[in-house]
Structures are given as C-alpha cells and as structure tokens.
Amino acid sequence: MRFRIPADGDEESLLDLQDWLAADPGTARVRVAPVGGGGGPTMNVLEAVDVILGNGVDLANFALAYATWRSVKQDESPARADGEGPGGRRLVHGDVSVDIGHLSSEELADLLRRLHDTPATGSDG
User: One Pfam family from the UniProt entry (predicted)?
Assistant: First the structure.
C-alpha cells in the first residue's frame, strides 16, 4: 500500500517524521521516499513523503510510530497560525485525503486497513 503525507507548509515536521520513522525499530524498514518540488520557486522544498507499507505488520507499526510521533510533536510545538498542530497530519491515498493528526494508533491502523482494501484512484496512490 502506498500513500502520501504532504508537508502542508511545514517541511520541518515532515523531516522530523522521516527521521522518527527511520529511527523506530518497527518502521526502520518501511520505505519512505521524499517528494520535492518539481520546479519553480518550490524546487528544493520537501512537499511530501510517500510511504509504502508491505504488509499488516508494517501497517500496525507505522500506525503506532505515527501516533507516538504526533503526540510528542504536539507536546513540543506550538499551534500553527492556521490553528492546526504541526504539519504532517494529512494522509492522501489516491483521491482520498484524511486528517490523521487526531487519530489514535488503533484508529489509524483501522483506517489504513480500510484504505488498503480499497483500490487507490488518482495520481497519488
């Protein structure tokens, strides 16, 4: 299963998420590919990360690592100007875009299982 987590203007949070996933023993082998700007003024900006989960264990490990990271980030970072917490809180799978920043690891794992069983449509999945 492949999905994208956009930076939504908070590249620092996305870089932190990449580092977190790489350091977590459960997600260290999960494929996380940075997506940069294709040209113009955002050419060198990290716009998103693509995450590829190979099986149910990867899915559960990602959900736990992400929920833990989100909890730590919310405790460390002040709210953004738009009233949202730190970036890296939206998941895009095909044409589906979901705010996952408030989900528990169990809720996120359930969402990922449902998305895994649904073919992605569109260009991101």
Answer: EACC1
Cβ atoms of 7 and 87 within 8 Å: the answer is yes
Domain ranges of the chain: 2-116
Specify whether the CB–CB gap between 36 and 48 falls below 8 A: no
How far from chain centre, in Å, is Cα 52? 10
Local confidence pLDDT in tens for the 125 residues of the chain: 999 999 998 999 999 999 999 999 999 999 999 998 765 555 567 899 999 999 999 999 999 999 999 999 877 766 555 556 678 999 999 999 999 999 999 999 999 999 998 776 765 44
List residues bridging with 117 in a β-sheet: none
